[in-house]
Amino acid sequence: MSKRSAPKEPTEGTRRSSRTSTTSAAPAAPASKKAKVAAAAPSKKAAAAPKKKEKEVAEEEEDELVEEDKKDKKKGGGVTPVGEVVHDVKLHNEDGEEVSFASLYEKSGSVPPVTPTPLSILQQQLTQGNHSVVLFSYPKASTPGCTTQACGFRDLYDDIAATGYAVFGISADKPAAQLNFKTKQKMQYSLLSDPKKDLLKQLGATEATKRCHWIVEKGGKLLEAKIGVKPADDPKNALAFIKAL
How far apart are CA 57 and CA 51, in angstroms? Predict the structure, then answer.
């Protein structure tokens, strides 16, 4: 009868291999809740860094805007406040002729006569200039509200001229539209065309639908700026302000 062979003892290498495979097969322990939160949430320093950078960028942009505003004021840009001189702007009248706004308010000269003919008013207001100015703006020539406002200044023209002020209307309309408006409503004063709104923006008329008026004395000092007015009341209010000076 043959002898059954005794089982072999596992070698050290076999035991180590078994332990290794057992260890690698074991599932990883789940991460704790605190560990998950810590991994997901950035550190306070990391979160604060972008905010600090955004704040610095905003401050730099604000500083740049302030500097640009200063440059604009030196150039004559920006909104002219009451009490300051209105900077010169090149415009066109209803006949398409270039008009320097400054030429209308120079310190010397005389006021146009009361109830002048259209020719004489053009010659004196647009060539000689040199007087205090009532300037009113309207959104669009020949529309109902604008007609009411413009005709109000037409009807009070003599009273305004008697105080030493000349009247001008202004809008972004082209000269041809201004001429048609003036001729149809028999206006004694000139209508100025400012299609790029260079003067209108300088005077604070940044909203296209708002009617306004400004009182400018000889030398160009802005005495009053009314932004957003009622068309029927505007001429009377402008005259009342002038008479109270």
Answer: 10
